[in-house]
Fold this sequence. Notes:
Elements: H1 6-14, E1 19-20, E2 24-25, H2 51-70
Antiparallel strand pairs: 1-2
Amino acid sequence: MRKFDQNQYNQWHSDPENWVWDMFYFNPIDDRLFPPKKIKEMGWTINFGNPNSVFLFLIILCIIIFLGKTFS
């Protein structure tokens, strides 16, 4: 696994090519599962370029749907 410094992460974060419709972060080189959102104070988003984060997102989504159907 490659290690990148904070300057590289900041550069990727500010690059408009890594944001689809200014909402979805897509950078396959970035190894973070949950990078900060475009407005960093708003929390984190999913790196849709990282297959592990997409898989984790789908697992969490399935759990939420399952719990919603179970307790409704």
